From TrEMBL:
It holds the Pfam family DUF347. This is Membrane-anchored protein. It comes from the Bacteria. Keywords: Membrane, Transmembrane, Transmembrane helix. The lineage of its organism: Bacteria, Pseudomonadati, Pseudomonadota, Alphaproteobacteria, Acetobacterales.
Length: 251
């Protein structure tokens, strides 16, 4: 059976779930590592194994399945956060250097993807090779976004709230450039995708971190649970709409 496009349509629901998933990546990693006391290394092993299993399932599907796709995205978000945390905390790499490293890694992934497939469009993810490039790019966008978000909020001491405002403003500017100035759709998508990671990370830290650290003090448990519940509700809604659309087409 031929493979159908494996990536959902880029709608408002797509961006909402994406931002929520990035927030869960930030707070979820902190919850498992700190609150559950697995530590950074233990959390990295657990989430790496989970991601490998779910990603294998995602690659085996022949079409877009909402719950599989978004579960993969959430786990990639957590692992991307952990990759950056390991590099900074365990290997002693500075945030500016980590940001630069992941920017180069993402650029190299895009270059290899384009050289192989002659496109970076997410609307044509219908071969396994393209999907592997896609998920590699997604992983590096999460790692880069984590490093850039931490650099802005902590390294440059801008704070979580102002970091969220800045990254939201940048996303708004990219959106305006795309719809108002007819900027290249693929370029605009990937820039916005990268920027949603530090936006989500800043929102996650703002909600979960204690007041003396610049947050609202909700904690990682409440923040992660709340955002996961919203993601679940949206994925259920998307799945129901997809099935309803299939029934209508069949009739």
């Amino acid at each position: 059976m031929a493979m159908l496009n494996k990536v959902p349509e880029v709608t408002l629901a797509f961006w909402v779930i994406k931002i929520l998933a990035t927030t869960v990546g930030e707070t979820g990693a902190d919850f498992i590592a700190v609150t559950m006391n697995f530590g950074l290394n233990g959390t990295s092993i657990i989430m790496g194994v989970l991601l490998a299993g779910v990603l294998a399932l995602q690659l085996r599907t022949r079409r877009y399945v909402p719950w599989v796709y978004w579960l993969t995205t959430v786990l990639v978000s957590v692992v991307g956060t952990l990759v950056t945390d390991n590099m900074v905390d365990n290997l002693g790499v500075t945030l500016p250097m980590a940001t630069a490293i992941f920017a180069v890694a993402l650029s190299a992934t895009f270059a290899a993807w384009y050289a192989s497939e002659r496109t970076l469009s997410i609307h044509s993810i219908h071969t396994t090779r393209r999907e592997v490039f896609y998920w590699a790019a997604i992983l590096f966008t999460f790692a880069l976004g984590t490093a850039a978000g931490d650099l802005a909020a902590e390294g440059l001491q801008i704070g979580y709230a102002w970091s969220a405002v800045i990254f939201a403003g940048l996303i708004a500017a990219v959106t305006a450039a795309h719809f108002g100035l007819k900027a290249n759709a693929i370029l605009a998508f990937w820039i916005a995708y990268i920027l949603t990671r530090p936006l989500g990370a800043s929102l996650g830290d703002l909600l979960s971190q204690p007041a003396d650290a610049g947050g609202l003090g909700l904690g990682t448990v409440v923040t992660s649970g709340l955002f996961l519940a919203v993601i679940l509700a949206l994925v259920v809604w998307l799945t129901a709409n997809r099935r309803q659309g299939a029934v209508v087409q069949a009739s």
